[in-house]
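Entry for the shared binder. Reason: the reviewer on the internal report wants the predicted structure included alongside the sequence.
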Amino acid sequence: MTKEIHFGGELRPVKYGWNALATFGELTGTSLKDLLRFMKGGLSFREVIALIYSGLKEGARAEKKEFTLTTEDIGDILDGESAEKIKEFMDVFSSQMPQEKKS
């Protein structure tokens, strides 16, 4: 399931699932064991850019839309955004990650 976020002058689909996590892992050299750190916001600046990129890339793929942004483009767009934009992506990330079931 995708969610749309206004980013870089466009409404863009965002999706965080296994494909986005795989892209993120390839970009940052991190693994699934780091997921808890990400969920708590313990990301470097480069990881924030990579996480946003991965969600946008996967959202575009899932919606069959062209995706031409680079990680540098993401950083450039973030230069013109408030910190709330990063929080918006992190909220989507958190909402789309599997939640632990309570017994």
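Summary line for the report: The chain has a mean pLDDT of 90.
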